[in-house]
Amino acid sequence: MAYPGNAYPGDPYPGNPGNPGYPASAYANWGQRVGAYLLDGLPAWVLIGIGSLFASHSFLIYLLFVLAALAWLVYNRWIQMGNTGQSLGKRTLGIRLVKETTGEPIGAGMAFVRDICHFVDSIICYIGWLFPLWDAKRQTLADKIVGTVVVPA
Amino acid sequence: MPLVVRRGYSVPENLTLAGAAAAVAGSAYPFLLAHDGNHGLPCPLRALTGVPCPLCGMTTATVALAHGEWRAVAAANPFAYLIAALVAATAPVLTARALGWLGPPRPWSPGARRRTGWAVAGLAMASWLVQLHRFGFL
C-alpha cells in the first residue's frame, strides 16, 4: 500500500477502518449522494409504474398510485430526512443530511424547502447537481441556500 | 472538531468519474426510452426562456464524439473537445490512483483554485457566446 494505515501528519481523523487506503472525508462524496437520491426515487417510480398499468383501465386507480408515490416522497425525503437526517437512500449509503452550523437534522419543513431549492440546481443546466464534485464542502446550490451539508453517518 | 476536506481523488478526477458514469447511463438511456438518440437532457433554461445556456448542444456533441463525427461535434458544441481532452488526460491519473500507485492528491493553493475558477468562467462565457450565435441570438 502506498500510504499505509492513517499515517498522515496532522490527520484530524486518525483511524478510518472502513477505508484504510484513503483518508476519511468530512463530507459524503458525490457518488454516495447520487446513489442515495436514486434509491429514494425508486419506490416512487415503481408505484407510478404499477399505477400506469391501470391507467387505461381506471384513472382513479392510477391516481391512487401516484398519490401513494407522493406520500412516499413526503414521508421519506421530508419527514424522515428532515427529522433524522436520513432518508432510505441516505441510510443505505451511510450518509446523513445536517445543518452546517449545528450538525443537527434540519426538520421536515427545511427538508421540504431544500428540495424546492433543487430547482436552482436544475435551472442552470443541472450544474448545481454537480457542485459536490468540486465544492470545498461538497454542497449543491440547494445545500448552500439552506445551509446544509451531507456527512458520513 | 474542524471540518477538513480530505479527498481520495482530485477535482478533475472526480469530473472524469462522473463523466464515465454519465457515459454508461447515456449509452443505456436511448435504449430505455428511444432509439433515435434525439432524447437528450432538455436544457431547463432554454425550455423556460428560449435562451440557450453554455452547455446546450453538449448531448449532441458527446454522441457525435462517440461516433467519431468530428465536424458534427464542432457544430453542436466545440467545447466538447476540451472536456474530452480533460477526460483523456485524467483517466491515466485516475487509474493509477485507483490502483494505489499514487498517493492522495495534494490540495491546490487558494490562488490556483481562484485562477482555475476564472478560467472555467471565461470558457463558459465563450461557450455561451457560441451557443447564442448558434441559436440566432447573436
Characterize the structure shown.
The complex is a heterodimer of chains A (153) and B (138). Chain A has six helices and two strands. Chain A has helices at 30-53, 59-84, 88-93, 108-123, 127-130, 141-146; strands at 95-99, 148-152. Chain A has a two-stranded antiparallel sheet. The radius of gyration of chain A is 18 Å and the shape is elongated. In chain A, 30% of the residues are buried. Chain B is globular. Chain B has six helices and no strands. Chains A and B meet through helix 1 of A and helix 1 and helix 2 of B.
Describe the structure in brief.
The complex is a heterodimer of chains A (153) and B (138). By secondary structure, chain A is mainly alpha-helical.
Characteristics of this structure?
heterodimer, A: 153 residues, mainly alpha, two-stranded antiparallel ribbon, 7% strand, disordered N terminus, B: 138 residues, 6 helices
How large is the count of helical segments of chain A?
A: 6
Strand content of chain A: 5-15%
Q: Please report the number of helical segments of chain B.
A: 6
According to DSSP, the number of beta strands of chain B is 0
Mean pLDDT of chain A: 86
First-to-last CA distance of chain A: 27 Å
**Helix content bin of chain B:** 55-70%
**Average of per-residue pLDDT values of chain B:** 83
